[in-house]
UniProtKB/TrEMBL annotation, chain A:
Keywords for this protein: Membrane, Transmembrane, Transmembrane helix, Transport
Record protein name field: Peptide/nickel transport system permease protein
Stretches assigned to the ABC transmembrane type-1 domain: 100-311
Protein's cellular compartments: Cell membrane; Membrane
Gene3D superfamilies: MetI-like
Family: Belongs to the binding-protein-dependent transport system permease family.
Lineage: Bacteria, Bacillati, Actinomycetota, Actinomycetes, Glycomycetales
Membrane topology recorded in Swiss-Prot or TrEMBL: Multi-pass membrane protein
UniProtKB/TrEMBL annotation, chain B:
Similarity comment text for this entry: Belongs to the ABC transporter superfamily.
One MF annotation (Gene Ontology) recorded for this entry: ATP hydrolysis activity
One cellular component term from this protein's GO annotations in UniProt: plasma membrane
Gene3D superfamilies in the cross-refs: P-loop containing nucleotide triphosphate hydrolases (3.40.50.300)
Originating species: Stackebrandtia albiflava
Subcellular compartments: Cell membrane
Signal peptide stretch: none
UniProt cross-references to NCBIfam families, sorted A to Z: oligo_HPY
Source species, domain of life: Bacteria
Protein name: Peptide/nickel transport system ATP-binding protein
Ranges of residues in domain ABC transporter: 9-262
Bilayer-spanning residue ranges: none
UniProtKB/TrEMBL annotation, chain C:
Membrane topology classification: Multi-pass membrane protein
Gene Ontology annotations for the cellular component aspect, listed alphabetically: plasma membrane
One Gene Ontology term of the molecular function aspect: dipeptide transmembrane transporter activity
Protein name (record): Peptide/nickel transport system permease protein
Region (Disordered): 1-21
Record field: transmembrane: 38-58, 99-127, 134-155, 161-179, 214-239, 267-291
Cell compartments where the protein resides: Cell membrane
Domain ABC transmembrane type-1 stretches: 100-288
InterPro entries assigned: BP-dependent_transpt_permease (IPR050366), MetI-like (IPR000515), MetI-like_sf (IPR035906), OppC_N (IPR025966)
Source organism superkingdom: Bacteria
Protein family membership: Belongs to the binding-protein-dependent transport system permease family.
Length: 326, 345, 332
């Protein structure tokens, strides 16, 4: 329990740091483009909304930085992240609400799938070290050196253009209206397959490699030799003794690399014009929609923090040493 | 005390590495363990004593490889007899722990940190006795813990919640789970303080009297073996250089190396004496001398010792000590050179 | 995409002060004899040469349109042309410099930062360590790429130098973490204790005793960051966040994407740039493996032995020692 509390405190601190960073970045950088954009929307934008943008970007020079910071937090806590420029006058929060579920489903599921798949393959490759299974390593090495989005491009070229079995873009059939009907869900899954495949292919290599190396290390631990000496069945030794311990550093590695992986997967969305956070972020960057960019950074960071916490809880469940009972 | 042979190691050779740079760590080792016997295996670190135990059980990790010999196990309870070096994986799995159990060096890492003690005690039982119920297994695990003086409620503990001494006793209990005929102990008490060491060794002696298994006890501490073992084999540079009963070895060490080993520990009983020790360092296994491997450090070495390698054979006093073997050209001379303080006992 | 967590973790074996010099000579030779390292260095060397002379040997002006738009590879245009008739080979040749420049610069800056933070934290201990570790953990958890995108997006026309700076500022944390752990274990080694007992100043100990022993870790961290920097930079260019008039491989992919190269079936537009990225990334990873095997001999021997083991049909594994009665060493 102490372990989880300590981790929770760390995440709260990190969340605070990320939010403060989000507050400071636009203030440290030249603010003129934002001002000119606000000027362009003058008249179509309510006084209130203008004010919230001023708070967001620190354009109000009358107020002290501290006062701005307090106002910023006030806005944030009431769920006000300003208005989007590109989708004017939709509030940023609404756009996040629309796109977040798509990203959670695609990136979340495929990242977990990739981790599980890679870990299982890594267990197998690490256990059978010195056999032909080692031949898998150069391939994983090559795959891990390629950016996600390029694999996405190739996947589209092969499976959507040259041999059209999957749709090249979008999150669902444009003829359908988002709803909970089986037809719509089926279409969403169908559209998600190729991007999910891309994410799995490009990230699985790292997990295979990491787990394989841990298996090799753990296999030489005394308790694995003891398990062999006890005459336990091979599967029991491999899973219960070697893999069960080797997965621990892999889980903490998973938590630590989430920030990097999410960055890569967001770009995959872009390539597939998938209606999630990544694609919308791309749109926001293209349209210089600063409030939307800021909002997205915030929500991405907070999601990664939540995912990190979940990984930590999983770690605590897996490793009895983290739950000291006195 | 010597009964039928349980484990016969014949011409066992082991190398580390697979290419031209491979090191021969065991060279044609011959050793027989009899039923009910406690055999001590002594020598400096790196002499191959642990390697011998692990190679004989086929548990030596890579890059270790067995390059010759045989290790024959003969059951004293039924008429099974097999060579461990030709056994298949499945045959090995079936006989491991059932016939031969091991207590490993350093109990800190011998227990799986993520499983409870109870589970680690019962999983060997369930692998070998699938007909037993979970209840029977748990009762047996509690009984085993009780045997080594640990309360049964510790079954629900994780290894990190136990002290070093407790963990080592758990390992001993684990080794006895299937009542094996042979228990190999690799420096089982080295990491513990003296009080704990004594306590565990006493317990071990009691258990052995009750259950009657044979023991191979590996340690660098010869004085411990003198008290504990029936017979002692001393290893040097991958070979056995002397094999004798504990009392013979203590009274009249025939090999100069054994003599040096005995003099590097203060005796627990008897008059005070000077600690001798052995000058020089163990040889590099990559480039062994042509003759006797101990010759460069030996006080009594002659020219012959530097040219020829002595074989492990019966001593010149074979009529008086029939089962004793030594690998030294000078062992007759050495007998006379023993200081009177040692022969008093 | 390589994340630092997946990059091979360098484990330094104990290198006491006295053995350092000996390792220096024979060790370096070993390092360059490693097949992986050599392949990696050759590929990287090839692209470094391209980076230096790319604009001189480029057959065309990479930005100059021509009438022959969207041509597949031919004798005139080895890698074909864009929709506007620009020569793709020239774009790749000219773009190499930007890729390597940003990658190396960012890697260098991040390495300096990680050494400063990591070694200081590891050596100081106490509250200083807690604070610096907390800082690197925070930077590690905050997703770097979105942060880079936001900052680069807020800046008008971010060029190579700016991008390198931003990447370095966000990418130093992993190296710092690994270095801190290594410094911590070094600090307790005998030769450091001895230096301290001799009254050597903290500065001297760090520069002359600790840093030389961290070379491999620093090098591996540097290469890891270069990979991360190159991938980030190309991703930024591909998204069009950075200045799209500066050529690099990401810019080529940006134009390919925005001109629907995929739908047009113009594979030559996006395949070569991607392969170049993969080649550079693989080269760097191979060098890193080389460093890893150089530092950790246990990994090295398995690679060397694999062939012998296969030839003799021996499977080296834990728990069942192989028995091989073939040509062992001659009986002595």
């Amino acid at each position: 329990m102490r372990y989880l509390l300590r981790r929770a405190a760390f995440y709260l601190l990190t969340a605070w740091a990320a939010i403060t960073l989000n507050f400071l970045i636009p203030r440290m950088l030249p603010g003129d483009p934002v001002r000119s954009l606000i000027a362009r929307f003058q008249g179509r934008i309510s006084v209130e909304a203008t004010e919230s943008l001023y708070i967001l970007f620190g354009l109000d020079e009358q107020k002290s930085l501290w006062q701005q910071y307090l106002d910023y937090w006030g806005n944030l806590l009431s769920g006000n992240l300003g208005l989007s420029f590109a989708y004017f006058p939709t509030p940023v929060v609404d756009i996040i609400e629309q796109s977040l579920p798509w990203t959670l489903a695609l990136v979340g599921l495929s990242t977990i799938l990739s981790f599980v798949l890679g870990t299982m393959l890594g267990v197998w490759v690490g256990w059978r070290r010195g056999t032909w299974a080692d031949g898998l390593l150069p391939v994983t090495n090559f795959l891990s050196a390629i950016p996600y989005f390029w694999i996405g491009l190739i996947a589209i070229a092969v499976f959507a253009v040259a041999w059209p079995i999957f749709p090249a873009s979008g999150g669902f059939d444009p003829g359908l209206i988002p709803s909970a009907t089986p037809e719509f869900i089926g279409s969403a899954i169908y559209h998600g397959l190729l991007p999910a495949f891309t994410i799995v292919i490009s990230s699985v290599a790292g997990w295979i490699l990491g787990m394989r190396n841990m298996m090799v290390t753990v296999s030489s631990e005394d308790y694995v030799t003891v398990a062999h000496a006890k005459g336990l069945p091979e599967r029991r030794v491999m899973i219960g003794y070697a893999a069960r311990n080797a997965v621990l550093p892999n889980v903490s590695g998973f938590a630590l690399s989430l920030g990097f992986i999410v960055g890569g997967t967001l770009v995959t969305e872009m390539v597939f014009t998938y209606p999630g956070i990544g694609y919308m972020l791309f749109q926001a960057v293209g349209a210089k929609d600063y409030p939307l960019m800021q909002g997205f950074f915030l929500i991405i960071t907070l999601s990664v923090l939540v995912a990190n916490m979940l990984a930590d809880i999983a770690y605590a469940v897996l490793d009895p040493r983290t739950r000291q009972e006195g | 005390m010597t009964g039928e042979p349980v484990l016969e190691i014949r011409n066992l050779s082991v190398e580390y590495g697979y290419d031209a740079d491979a090191v021969r760590v065991l060279r044609d080792v011959n050793l027989t363990l009899h039923a009910g016997e406690v055999l001590g295996l002594a020598g400096e670190s790196g002499c191959g004593k642990s390697t011998l135990a692990y190679a004989a059980t086929r548990l030596l990790p890579p890059p270790g490889i067995i390059t010759g010999g045989e290790v024959v196990f003969t059951s004293t309870r039924d008429d099974r007899r097999y060579d461990l070096l030709t056994a298949t994986d499945d045959e090995l799995r079936a006989t491991r722990w059932e016939d031969t159990a091991i207590v490993f060096q350093g109990a800190m890492n011998s227990l799986n940190p993520v499983y409870r003690i109870g589970r680690q005690l019962t999983d060997a039982i369930s692998a070998h006795r699938p007909e037993q119920s979970a209840r029977q297994r748990r009762d047996r695990a509690a009984e085993l813990l009780d045997m080594v003086g640990i309360p049964a409620d510790r079954l629900r503990s994780y290894p990190h919640q136990l002290s070093g001494g407790m963990r080592q006793r758990v390992m001993i209990a684990m080794a006895l789970a299937l009542e094996p005929q042979l228990v190999i102990m690799d420096e089982p008490t080295t990491a513990l303080d003296v009080v704990m060491q004594r306590q565990i060794l006493q317990q071990l002696a009691d258990l052995r009297t009750r259950l009657g298994f044979s023991v191979v006890f590996i340690t660098h501490d010869v004085s411990l073996l003198i008290e504990l073992a029936d017979r002692i084999a001393v290893m040097y540079a991958g070979e056995i250089v002397e094999d004798a009963t504990a009392s013979q070895m203590y009274r009249t060490p025939r090999h100069p190396y054994t003599d040096g080993l005995l003099h590097s520990f203060p005796p627990l009983h008897g008059p005070r004496q000077e600690l001798g020790g052995i000058p020089g360092a163990p040889p590099d296994l990559m480039s062994l001398p042509r003759g006797c491997t101990f010759a460069p450090r030996c006080r009594v070495a002659l020219d012959r010792c530097r040219d020829e390698r002595p074989a492990l054979t019966a001593t010149a006093f074979a009529d008086r000590e029939p089962h004793r073997r030594v690998a030294c050209f000078q062992h007759e001379r050495e007998a006379a050179a023993i200081p009177p303080s040692l022969t008093v006992m | 995409m390589v994340t630092p967590a997946q990059a091979p973790a360098v484990v330094t074996e104990p290198t006491a002060g006295s053995t350092r010099r000996r390792r220096g000579l024979t060790g370096n030779l070993l390092f360059f004899r490693n097949r992986k390292t050599v392949i990696g260095l050759v590929i990287l060397g090839f692209f470094t040469v391209l980076a230096l002379i790319g604009d001189l040997i480029a057959p065309y002006d990479p930005s100059l349109p021509s009438e022959v738009g969207l041509q597949p590879p031919s004798a005139d245009h080895w890698l074909g042309t864009t929709l506007l008739g620009q020569d793709i080979l020239s774009q790749i040749l000219v773009g190499t410099r930007g890729v390597l420049f940003v990658g190396l610069l960012a890697g260098l800056l991040a390495a300096v930062l990680s050494v400063l933070v990591g070694v200081t934290a590891g050596f100081l201990g106490g509250i200083g360590d807690e604070g610096l570790s907390l800082l690197s953990n925070i930077f590690l958890v905050i997703p770097a790429l979105p942060l880079i995108i936001i900052v680069a997006g807020l800046l008008p026309d971010a060029g190579g130098l700016t991008v390198a700076l931003i990447i370095a500022l966000t990418g130093w944390a992993w190296g710092a973490r690994v270095l801190r752990a290594q410094t911590l274990s070094l600090r307790r080694r005998d030769f450091i204790e001895a230096a301290r007992a001799n009254g050597e100043s903290t500065w001297r100990i760090i520069v002359f005793e600790i840093l030389p022993n961290l070379t491999a870790v620093i090098a591996s961290g540097f290469i890891g960051t270069v990979i991360f920097a190159i991938l980030s930079e190309i991703t930024l260019a591909f998204m069009g966040v950075t200045n799209i008039s500066e050529w690099n491989w990401g810019t080529i992919l940006f134009w390919a994407q925005s001109n629907q190269a995929l739908a047009l079936g113009a594979w030559w537009w996006f395949v070569p740039a991607g392969l170049c990225i993969a080649a550079v990334g693989t080269a760097l990873t191979l060098i890193n493996f080389g460093i890893d095997e150089f530092v950790n001999p246990r990994l090295r021997t398995t690679g060397k032995n694999a062939k012998i083991l296969r030839a003799r049909r021996i499977r080296a594994r834990v728990g069942f020692t192989p028995v091989y009665r073939g040509t062992g060493k001659e009986q002595s």
